[in-house]
Amino acid sequence: MFSGFETYIKEQANLNDHEVQLMRSMAVERSLRRREFLLQQGQVCRYKIFITKGLLRAYSAGGDGSEHIVQFSPENSWITDPESLDKGSPSNSNIDALEPSEVVLWTKKDLHYLAANIPGLKAYFDKLISRSSYMFRQRLLSAISLTAEEKYEEFIKKFPHLLERVPLHMVASYLGVTRETLSRIRRTQLIRK
Amino acid sequence: MFSGFETYIKEQANLNDHEVQLMRSMAVERSLRRREFLLQQGQVCRYKIFITKGLLRAYSAGGDGSEHIVQFSPENSWITDPESLDKGSPSNSNIDALEPSEVVLWTKKDLHYLAANIPGLKAYFDKLISRSSYMFRQRLLSAISLTAEEKYEEFIKKFPHLLERVPLHMVASYLGVTRETLSRIRRTQLIRK
To answer: Which of A64, B75, B112, B183 would suit a FRET pair with B21, their CA atoms being 20 to 30 Å apart?
Structure first.
């Protein structure tokens, strides 16, 4: 699993072999079954997780059994609850696997040590946090400004391959529209074609 | 205007007098009339703006004349289009003043210089970016999971003083609900009381 991460990080950040070996020495590898949890709402998030294979999601569960998906994380992406990890506060989301997955993860303490001792990694994490912030800002803007149909079209454009891997009710939950609305939109689009 | 910023930054970040003077030497002070723009959609955002007095907002305008408010920034807060500032790409939002305001701003180039030469400022900006990311993540979760009424109640709790300073249609635009829905919610709440 680490070799998948190694290929990725060497493309993304300016790290030498010694620095990659230091990351490896602190990495924990995990295989996840479908629907296995890495974080449950109310727990403190202790890891930053890199997905080398499969698909994870972060979601918040409502008291009525509803699920609100904050993030899908396929292979070659990161997932965590950044605020819970940072502050040590209880998480407001769950993280689980939607497919059998392989991940590499680091504790907060080890991440601090690595970022403090590997300048290229610190620069990469800074970029990652900025990108995540832009992404959530943009998604918020979409959430408050687009129609349900526009939201769905934006999703298809941004994540063309996720549609085949994720059940439709989860796409609805990610977009913040009801299943019924999303089904209606898809029927209308099929008729148009 | 700078003195307002100086008081703020000394509370928030670990800066010595020399470092504050360095920031002052690169700061641009501006007074803004109500409805004066600091950024228009499509332009590249060139500044990070600190508000010492008044109230600014960032919003995106739809082709149909609709406005979608991404952020309200009262005194002692920052506003910018972070992605446009960072990448030099056209902004998807406007920034204007909702009240006569006083601001201090820095160009991207000067900010880079300051952050590179003042470790306490770099640490403060890192924290600011993280906080902003948490805030947008949380707001996105609210946008996709809460009812219109819950969104309004959350807004009142988080920003009790903004309600008196911002017209209701802008609160609706910030929450991503229609004016009619927001008026209905307020009427229902008044009747309950």
So the answer is: B75
Strands A77-79 vs A55-61: parallel, antiparallel or unpaired: unpaired
Is B137 an 8 Å CB contact of chain A?
yes
Q: Phi/psi of residue B152, each to 5°? A: -65, -45
Give the predicted TM-score (pTM) of the model: 0.92
Tens-digit pLDDT profile for residues A142-158: 999 999 999 999 999 99
**DSSP code, position B80:** -
What whole-number distance in Å separates Cα of residue A118 and Cα of residue A120? 6
pLDDT tens readout for residues B65-74: 899 999 999 9
Name the token pair of B17.
Answer: 């007098």
**Residues of A in Cβ contact (< 8 Å) with B176:** 143-145
Cβ distance B26 to B109 under 8 Å? no
Class of domain B2-144 as given by CATH: mainly beta
A144 vs B contacts (CB less than 8 Å): 68-69, 143, 173-176
Q: Are A97 and A90 in contact (CB under 8 A)?
A: no
Strands A37-39 and A94-97: antiparallel
Q: How far is B53 from chain A (nearest CA, A)?
A: 25
> What single-letter DSSP state applies at residue A162?
G
Q: How far apart are CA A182 and CA A191, in angstroms?
A: 14
Cβ atoms of A151 and A159 within 8 Å: the answer is no
